[in-house]
């Protein structure tokens, strides 16, 4: 694996500041503010900030600095609807491949996480992303997987901006044991049930 450039390191560090709400969505900050958190030269930090702006994660406020681009509920619903179409259709089309792929089934069987009370916000999200990407990987379509990855990152930003402080409450009210039900349906070779609960799991937040 190649060593990361200073710009890449700066990008990751700044992104982590955003994800951990060190810099909130309504907070205006400048390059000097970032330098207090990151021990990397000003040039790479500026380049990373520009890239985050190009990706619409940050926006430039002339003469003031930068601000995190907020994600509203309407955009979240659009992302959920997108995921439901892509993931459920992929599972339906590639069901026979999944049934013949013992490796992926074993990954799902031993690597899935049942939602627990008081689980760490980021740990739970990482588990959720891994579960859905594993199922989608049966498509062997890197474009679909990349789209899902980008969408999940954007959804994470929404939850951090709006729900990170009450994640435990949201988790109890919204998320159920759908991962376990999906896994069992796959083991039982029950396609209809697996797709039904995959859809139900993806739309969990919409039931809140």
Given the C-alpha coordinates, what overall shape results? Answer: elongated
Could you name the CATH class of the largest domain? Mainly Alpha
CATH architecture of the largest domain: Up-down Bundle
Low-confidence stretches: 114-118
CATH topology of the largest domain: Four Helix Bundle (Hemerythrin (Met), subunit A)
Count of spatially separate domains: 2
Q: Give the biggest sheet.
A: 3 strands, antiparallel
Number of helical stretches of at least 4 residues = 11
Give the strand tally.
3
The helix fraction, in percent, is 55-70%
Q: So, the CATH homologous superfamily of the largest domain?
A: GntR ligand-binding domain-like
The class by helix and strand makeup works out as: mainly alpha
End-to-end span in angstroms? 42 Å
- Gyration radius, in Å: 19 Å
Strand order of the largest sheet: 1-3-2
Give the mean pLDDT. 85
The portion of residues forming beta strands comes to: under 5%
List the helices and strands in order. HEHHEEHHHHHHHH
């Amino acid at each position: 694996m190649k060593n990361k450039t200073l710009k890449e390191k700066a990008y990751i560090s700044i992104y982590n500041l955003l994800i951990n709400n060190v810099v909130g969505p309504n907070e205006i900050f400048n390059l000097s503010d970032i330098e207090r958190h990151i021990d990397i030269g000003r040039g790479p930090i500026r380049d990373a900030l520009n890239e985050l702006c190009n990706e619409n994660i940050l926006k430039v406020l002339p003469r003031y600095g930068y601000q995190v681009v907020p994600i509203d509920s309407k955009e979240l619903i659009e992302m959920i609807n997108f995921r439901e179409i892509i993931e459920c259709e992929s599972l339906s089309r590639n069901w026979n491949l999944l049934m013949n792929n013992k490796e992926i089934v074993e990954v799902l069987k031993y690597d899935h996480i049942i939602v627990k009370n008081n689980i760490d916000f980021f740990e739970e999200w990482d588990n959720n992303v891994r579960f859905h990407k594993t199922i989608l990987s049966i498509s062997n379509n890197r474009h679909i997987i990349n789209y899902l990855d980008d969408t999940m990152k954007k959804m994470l930003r929404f939850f951090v901006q709006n729900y990170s402080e009450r994640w435990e409450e949201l988790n109890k009210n919204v998320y159920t044991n759908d991962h376990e039900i999906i896994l069992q349906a796959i083991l039982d070779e029950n396609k209809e049930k697996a797709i039904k609960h995959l859809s139900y799991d993806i739309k969990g937040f919409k039931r809140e």
